[in-house]
Amino acid sequence: MYISLLAIAVGLSADAFAVTLSDMLCYRNLPMKKKMLLPMFFGIFQGVMPLVGYFVGALLGEVIESFDHWIAFALLAILGVKMIIESIKEMGEEEKSVERQLSYGEMITQSIATSIDAMAVGITLAIVVELPIYVSAPIIAVVTYLLCLFGVGIASKLGRFLKNKAGIVGGIILVAIGVKILIEHLIGA
Is residue 142 classed exposed, middle or buried when 0-12, 13-18 and 19+ CB atoms within 10 A define those classes? Predict the structure, then answer.
């Protein structure tokens, strides 16, 4: 049962991991505080959303599942396109060294967008892994936090390799994750 839960946790945290990489590529000079907070935000939201799904699911499960993928897609696409546009503008302004900062609002928006699936999983989590939700949710949170922390660590090496194109790559990753979520739900994967 713990192996099933770990597999679910890794699956749920994959999008958060990819968004962490994207953020670290786009916002290369983030203060250490934000580099440590980002994985915490993702972990907390990934842990809380299954709880929400578990408790609200009995009442609104089918309604939520009918549009959650559209919300995740829209949020990630908007943030990704914004990153791409900002990076292209910066490439045109060679002399100006404007450092973009990842806002707390963007961190929360990304955390919500990548954890909406966890809410849907919360509806069936107790049945699938045969563990109480109060055990499952913290394990999902910790796994997400650790994977995203790992993403923070490896992104610095990727950022040096990609240099000024990192923002465009990061934006494309966000849009791609949004499209992936949308397609998975539309085809029922």
Answer: middle
Q: Of 125, 117, 156, which is closest to residue 32 (Cα–Cα)?
A: 156
- Angle subtended at Cα 82 by Cα 79 and Cα 83, rounded to the nearest 5 degrees: 90
How does DSSP assign 82-122, residue by residue?
HHHHHHHHHHH-SS--PPP---HHHHHHHHHHHHHHHHHHH
Single-letter code of the amino acid located at 10: V
Contact 13, 143 (CB under 8 A): yes
Separation of first and last alpha carbons in the chain: 23
Amino acid present at 165: K
Residue 30, token pair as written in the block: 């983030």
- Kindly tell me the burial class for residue 174, based on how many C-beta atoms sit within 10 Å of its own C-beta (0-12, 13-18, 19 or more): buried
Amino acid at 81: V
pLDDT tens-digit profile of 124-182? Answer: 665 555 678 888 899 999 999 999 999 998 887 776 666 666 667 777 877 887 788 78
Q: How far is CA 181 from CA 76, 87, 174, in A?
A: 10, 24, 11
Q: Are the C-beta atoms of 32 and 165 separated by less than 8 Å?
A: no
Hey, what are 47's tokens?
């842990």
As a whole number of angstroms, the distance between CA 95 and CA 88 comes to 14
